[in-house]
Amino acid sequence: MQKDVTITARIDGELSRRLSRLSTLQGRSKSWVVGKALSAYLEAELAFVEAVEQGRSDVRDGRVASHEDVVARFKARFGSDE
What we know:
Elements: H1 13-26, H2 30-60, H3 67-78
């Protein structure tokens, strides 16, 4: 089982007030709110960075489609306003 780790972060006063308000409204500790927020942020950012890396790998390996092909496929699937 993983042990908890303590971290320190410097935040501005307004963010601290919002954090306190949310933790009070939720009946949770500020530490719990920060942990949830950090977890959600990391999940989203890691997914984005991994998708970018996959895209870069696809480009390096030639797995790409031309703009014209993408537009043609889009029009074939969804129609065209033209």
